[in-house]
Specification:
85 residues, mainly alpha
């Protein structure tokens, strides 16, 4: 019973930042294409909010993948954790 529940929580920990990054990308896209509307101005607040959300989501997923690969020894030698003497 515990293992499937923990795996579900782990999937949620990756889905939520993925959705955050997706929403951030879509907000940036909407802000850029809003300038082609009749108004002709860009929504800078929405663009920067989208940029922040996108960077948070991508950095979380990238960091999770990097540390998982480091633990399993899949990374290049320069990225491996320094050994203790």
């Amino acid at each position: 019973m515990r293992a499937p529940f923990y795996r579900f929580i782990a999937i949620l920990l990756l889905v939520i930042p993925g959705l955050t990054a997706t929403y951030g990308f879509l907000a940036m896209k909407d802000a850029i294409f809003a300038q082609f509307n009749t108004d002709g101005h860009m929504l800078w607040g929405k663009f920067f909010l989208g940029l922040v959300l996108f960077l948070i989501g991508v950095s979380f997923i990238g960091g999770w993948t990097f540390f998982r690969d480091r633990k399993r020894n899949y990374v290049a030698p320069r990225f491996k954790a320094p050994r203790r003497k």
